[in-house]
Amino acid sequence: MLNFDLDDQQKMLRDMIRDFAEKEVEPIAAEIDETMEFPEKNIKKLAQLGILGMTVPPEYGGQGMDALSYIIVVEELSRVCGSTGLTVAAAISLGVTPILLNGTEAQKKKWLPGLASGEYMGSFGLTEPGAGSDSGGTRTTAVRDGDEWVINGTKQFITNAAHAGIITITAKTDPEAKRSHGISAIVVPTDAPGFKLGTKENKLGVRASETWELIFEDCRVPAENLLGELNTGFGTFMRTLEGGRISIGAMALGIAQGALDKTVPYALEREQFGRPIAKFQAISNMIADMATEIEAARHMVYHAARLQDAGRPFGKEAAMAKLFASEVAMRATNMGLQIHGGYGYTQEYPLERYFRDAKLTTIGEGTSEVQRIVIARRVLEAYGGAAR
Ligand SMILES: Cc1cc2nc3c(=O)[nH]c(=O)nc-3n(C[C@H](O)[C@H](O)[C@H](O)COP(=O)(O)OP(=O)(O)OC[C@H]3O[C@@H](n4cnc5c(N)ncnc54)[C@H](O)[C@@H]3O)c2cc1C
Predict the structure, then answer these.
(1) Which residues form ligand 1's pocket by a CB distance below 6 Å?
(2) Which CATH number fits the domain that encloses residue 196?
(3) Ligand 1 closest atom vs CA 363
(4) Domain assignment of residue 387, yes or no
């Protein structure tokens, strides 16, 4: 029988995170957005609740929960603070998944317990100054020297890097191989000699989520830090991003829901022309559109997560969910801000923050244009058309 409800454990988790988000995260969200202060205390509390290790199997110190539970956590945190939602999403999905997917038993035992407990975070170093959407164009190199890799290059826009104990990066290990071939995934401990943080970005939105440049200058890491087979690391990164796209969809969904939650009470209370503005059809139509699109986005995001949980292919659905939910977040925050009028444009209300935070979801983990490429490729293939 089809069950459209969350199960009891998922409902309990949602209620617990919603309570935490409203009591601990929301009160400081505007301030940390302004100051760009990393939400260290709340991340520690979430780690104590087992959230950072929620997708890690119990044998490595985690909770072994399903993808949908994780998605609900990202949605609920993002409903009040996009920065906290992104910080947690990047730590769980991008930080943990490459090791879960491709780590050897020894590598899992070495790194997963620390990631699961929140002793340190993991980061995901794919993007480079010259390799963004074209992430297979990586120029960072790793050359084998005895029992070490010597890494040189620069990574751009890496979330949580200053709080990471390890960063999984892509590096070209076969310089002769064309395009995304000849790339390996390598785990770099952040105390490795030759590694340093570069500039921290000052951003439009998600300002309390940290985004760093990484610099590798003859950075040496043990040969055993190669993750998966030599020259096949790009595949590990692309598989990680499939799940990551559902998380950004969940973040977008949370931001859109948060915008609706703030907008409806405002529209019911704010009076012009002697009546609440919610009574004007122009306003109630926008509320209807926001609610309808959010409902559709939630179905798509949850569906992609359920496919992942069922062990079914979910790449196309993840890309569709991310594309749709992120564009819903843009429209919903825009309408919510419009309904708040001039007050929405000020920092007195959170709509302007939601509006700025939503924009990231159309860019991070593959832009909307890239999602359309991924989706179109799958659709054309299904009709016997040539894949690009
Ligand atoms: C806040 C933040 C956090 C991030 N965190 C991480 C992280 O933790 N790890 C990480 O590795 N990366 C991270 N990124 C990087 C992010 O994934 C990239 O910014 C994104 O993939 C786009 O790459 P780019 O910025 O180089 O843009 P570009 O690739 O230069 O794109 C510029 C424009 O061209 C379009 N475009 C490019 N190619 C095509 C094409 N073939 N067809 C049509 N249009 C195209 C794009 O859609 C975009 O509109 C983060 C980015 C941000 C802003």
Answers:
(1) 90, 94, 123-127, 132-133, 157-159, 203, 206, 211, 360, 363-367, 369-370
(2) 2.40.110.10
(3) 20
(4) no
Residue 276's domain is classified under what CATH number? Answer: 1.20.140.10
Nearest to 155 by CA among 188, 126, 177, 176: 126
Distance CA 261, CA 255 (A): 10
**Which residues carry out catalysis?**
365
> For the whole prediction, is pTM greater than 0.90?
yes
65 and 128 co-located in one domain: no
Domain count, the chain: 3
Query: What pLDDT does 196 receive?
Result: 98
Q: How far apart are CA 350 and CA 84, in angstroms?
A: 15
Residue 388: pLDDT above 60?
no
Kindly tell me if the per-residue pLDDT of 2 is higher than 60. Answer: no
- Both 353 and 365 in one domain: the answer is yes
Q: Of all protein residues, whose CA lies closest to atom 6 belonging to ligand 1?
A: 158
326 in Cβ contact with 361 (< 8 Å): yes
Query: 281 lies in a domain?
Result: yes
**Residue 380 CA to its chain's centroid (Å):** 28
